[in-house]
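Support request, please re-run this one:
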Amino acid sequence: MFWTIPTIMTWTRIVAIPLIVGVFYTPIAPEMQNLIATVMFVVFAATDWLDGFLARKLNQTSSFGAFLDPVADKFLVCASLLVLVHLQRADVFVALIIIGREIAISALREWMAQIGASRSVAVHMIGKLKTTVQMMAMPFLLYDGRLFDVIDTGVWGTWLIWIAAVLTVWSMVYYLQKAIPEIRARVKH
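Re-run finished. Output below.
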């Protein structure tokens, strides 16, 4: 099921990346760049929930969709993080934590699948919470202004991205702890 409605929606998150990045290279006012990038991010991030809902509702789940969905999330978050680091709205240390974890856990999951132990590193609630907080932090940091003349999105985004970094480390430790018994069993043989 390569071209289902849910899979096409997942692809939109990947296609969104150059569009969001490109906004910051357009000759418009920085406030408008921030607003456009924020709206785009929110709309495309919402497809993460919607594509899963539609896949179940329309009975269009597939192994390809299950593979592509987290990849699209990771691309969107990592690309947005790099833009935010470039704009000096996110600390490079946070970006290294988040991107490094995504690479490490993706590699771990691939290896665990090769040895037939992918269930031990299946998606857990802590990983979902980490993704949710990351997806909440990004629009605040992309907007980088005062929302309703009350909320300083830069401050809120900074707090949320640091919370996301903590959750990122926590989820990585959780997945590594789940994988260690399998790793030990394989090393002995």
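Helices lie at 5-23, 30-57, 63-86, 92-114, 125-143, 153-188. Strands lie at 146-147, 151-152.
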